Amino acid sequence: MRAMDLPAASWDAPARALSVGQQQRVAAARALVGAPPVVIADEPTSALDENRRDAFMDLLLAACAQAASTLVFVSHDQRLAPRFARQVDLAQINRATAPAAS
Q1: pLDDT mean by block of 10 residues, the chain; 102 residues
Q2: Any idea which architecture 8-87 has in CATH?
Q3: Residue 71's beta-bridge partner residues?
Q4: How distant is the alpha carbon of residue 85 from its chain centre?
């Protein structure tokens, strides 16, 4: 919780008492428990200001690397794209076709 930049006073609070940004950081911390093989993050930075977003991304990417977890990250924020070696645009997915029937 400390690594997610959550104040100690919030550690025992129910999730509903936290801000949306704090809830997102708690969800990320939960997702990383146990070094899962895959972490799926859907818009995890949408409620974070720029400074917290950058710090969160540093932490998330480092935690996934340390745990050897694959990160599937969904975002509309194009400023985050350079942080990833591979990107798939929604238009690419929509153009995908099913394999031909044999």
Answers
A1: 69 80 79 89 88 88 91 93 90 71 67
A2: 3-Layer(aba) Sandwich (3.40)
A3: 39
A4: 15
